[in-house]
Amino acid sequence: MNLTALLNFYPLEALGSFWSDFMSTSSGSDTLFRLYGFPVLHSASPPFHNLIFDLQGQGRHYSTFSTSKIIPDMLKELHSDVFGGCSVTMPIKGAIIPYLDDIEPESKATGAVNTIVKVPAQPESGGIKLIGTNTDILGVKNALLRSLRLQHSGENISSQDRYPPGAGSAVVYGGGATSRSAIYALSSMGLHPIYVVNRDADEVKQVQNIFPELVSRGSLIHLRTPQEVEEHVVQSNPILMVVGAIPAVKPVTMEERMVYTVASHIFNMPYDPPSSYNPSGVTGLLPLPSKRLFLEMAYKPRITPMLKVAAAHGWEPIEGIEAMIEQGYAQQRMWAAGNASATIGSDPSILGTFIERMARDLVLSMEDVIVKEVEVDLAAEMQAAPLVETPSPTFRILPTRK
What SUPFAM superfamilies has UniProt attached to this entry (predicted)? Predict the structure, then answer.
């Protein structure tokens, strides 16, 4: 039963707390899950996560906490017995890192944490650790893999599969935090090189500084003009995937218009996947897309100008909301398993097909969240909380819950 059928069978008034609790406060006895950042009241995360929690029936609740800094009240929640896990958004994705026990490789590579997971510590300590990770990477990767699976429905495509050397390359439009997540995701799929289309050379340099290993082997190349596309791309591995990570606004300056010119040039490049790509049937290899994939990370509006350009040139368009859904799945899987690894975050068996389908239907059916009140930054008049240098049982390591 999809969401529409559910709501037709059970009117909203009859669903009671099942529906109204999506955006309401916790009962007080629930395990607490949060979205920390500012602003956050516009987020679709509370209805998404609370639907999953309600379907699981485990007494968990997800709500927002508006803060632009790491403040003491936030830390008290993170280290309380009722805390179950959280999402972290701007402007504190980087600021939260020193307050955690450890971070996963995805956060180390991108310098950002958007998810905190309570993970059991060593058995002898009898406690837990707060581990940070970046599920935005899995949002990108798993949205691309989902589209690839739809193209190759008869194949068993694993999240661990990769492209072999020389199979294909990728492009990222942009240079901010989302671009870094996209670069990490595409590299983890075996795509090489990765081209970065950006009008700002300094911004690209900052991205390259984060990925020195990719730069050292010539796998992170800045493209600014159609001429550079011809110089670097035509004789290289075919472009299989593109991720757009720029705002969906009309380009105004000449430099901004050039990004769209370069994008159109890339979208217009011919593509003819070989029929004998993997004749020996080697396992663990990703299949070539029958239509090249374009993932647009911007999702307001849902259909962006860049998405239209890609589709018009024969690319498979993937809306940004798909990446948002996939990173939400990854968070839920990690919280449920008490494990922040990317492998756990990509395992659909943890939540199950029904719950994931219901959550997807909810998000796809939602309109933008209308904020009907002035959002107050709880950290507006406060200093950031001090760091604790040495872990202590009362602050860094909590006893296990009974």
Answer: Aminoacid dehydrogenase-like, N-terminal domain, NAD(P)-binding Rossmann-fold domains
pLDDT at 339: 98
Q: Does residue 120 have a cis peptide bond before it, meaning omega lies within 30 degrees of 0?
A: no
| Position with higher pLDDT, 168 vs 280 | 168
CA torsion through residues 131, 137, 142, 145, sign? negative
CB-based burial of residue 228 (10 Å sphere; 0-12 exposed, 13-18 middle, 19+ buried)?
A: middle
Mean pLDDT across 300-306: 90
Residues whose CB is less than 8 angstroms from the CB of residue 156 and which lie 6 or more positions away in sequence, other chains included: none
**Structural domain boundaries enclosing 307:** 137-272+282-322
pLDDT in tens, 171-181: 999 999 999 99
- What would the pLDDT profile of 23-49 be if each residue is shown by its tens digit? 444 555 689 999 999 999 999 999 999
pLDDT at 4: 45
The residue whose two tokens read 């492998």 is 343
In the Cβ-directed half-sphere of 117, how many Cα atoms lie within 13 Å?
27
- What CATH code is carried by the domain that includes residue 20? 3.40.50.10860
CA 19 → CA 10, 46, 75, 348, distances in Å? 10, 11, 30, 24
Residues 261 and 169 in one domain: yes
Residue 379 lies in a domain: yes
Query: Which residues are 102's β-sheet partners?
Result: 131
As given in the structure block, the two tokens for residue 319 are 């809306």
Q: Are residues 317 and 377 in the same domain?
A: no
User: Which of 322, 351, 386 lies at the terminal end of a domain, its last residue?
Assistant: 322
- Kindly tell me the sign of the dihedral angle through the C-alpha atoms of 30, 35, 40, 44: negative
Q: Is residue 119 located within the same domain as residue 229?
A: no
How many beta carbons lie within 10 A of that of residue 316, not counting itself?
19
CA atoms within 13 A on the CB side of 232: 25
Would you put residue 352 in left (φ > 0), alpha (ψ -120 to 50) or beta? left
Beta bridge partners of 83: 32
